[in-house]
Amino acid sequence: MIKSALALFVFILMPFTGWGKDQSIPADVLEKLHEIHDSIQTVSGSFVQKKHLDVFDQTLVSRGSFAIDRPGRIRWAYEEPSVFGFSSDGLQVRRWSEESGMSQSAPLSRDPVLSVIVDQMLAWSTMDLQAIEDHFSLTLAESEPMVLELEPEAKELRDIISKVLISFDSTSTHIEKIRILEHDSDRTNIRFEEVSLNQDLDHELF
Q: Which domain holds residue 160?
């Protein structure tokens, strides 16, 4: 259950090297993205995820919370309508699901799929440009507030995803919303709320 729910992030958090290419990203925007990365040690808050299924004309809504502490600690927890998620201290990963009663810990290195997801969620949340590789082309869709538009380059992603829009908050200090548009008119919106930067986080969260 956890991996299928997190499969969304396999698409939006896979690395991409758009930053190093000629993709109409002004130098001052690149500098701003580097500044965001350098300024963030911790980020935490809540999220609302809305998945619209066009064929059923239905929107599925999930709510949860997240916490990230560089360089390697992360917690991503769905809390409504189902309770499940994972946390990692960079070495161990713990997964849980209230529905199945499952709660287990294991070395992160034994779960390569989740390891990739963890690494890229950390990279995205802190705008770690050096950790981002080559799967999307990147353009600046809007400047104030900043919106980045990603178009997949790999065929396996292009067959599913039309584009991804990454929206920053009004001060351009953190990601506020992620919108994933699919070719079949399905779409997923994730809005981050009550975001706190550089606050002390309890290590027991991870």
A: 27-198
Report the C-alpha gap between 149 and 135 in whole angstroms: 13
Number of domains in the chain: 1
What predicted TM-score, i.e. pTM, was given to this entire model?
0.76
Residue 20 is assigned to a structural domain of this protein: no
Residue 187 lies in a domain: yes
On whether the CB atoms of residues 177 and 193 are closer than 8 A, the answer is no
pLDDT 10s per residue in the chain (206 long)? 444 444 445 444 443 334 444 456 777 887 877 777 778 888 899 999 999 888 788 899 999 999 988 888 889 999 999 999 999 988 888 999 998 888 999 898 887 777 767 766 766 566 555 544 456 677 888 888 889 887 777 676 678 788 888 898 888 788 899 888 887 788 889 999 999 999 999 988 98
Beta carbons within 8 Å of 18's beta carbon, 6+ residues apart? 25, 132, 134, 136, 137, 138, 150
Instruction: State how far the Cα of 130 lies from the Cα of 66, in Å rounded to an integer.
Output: 23
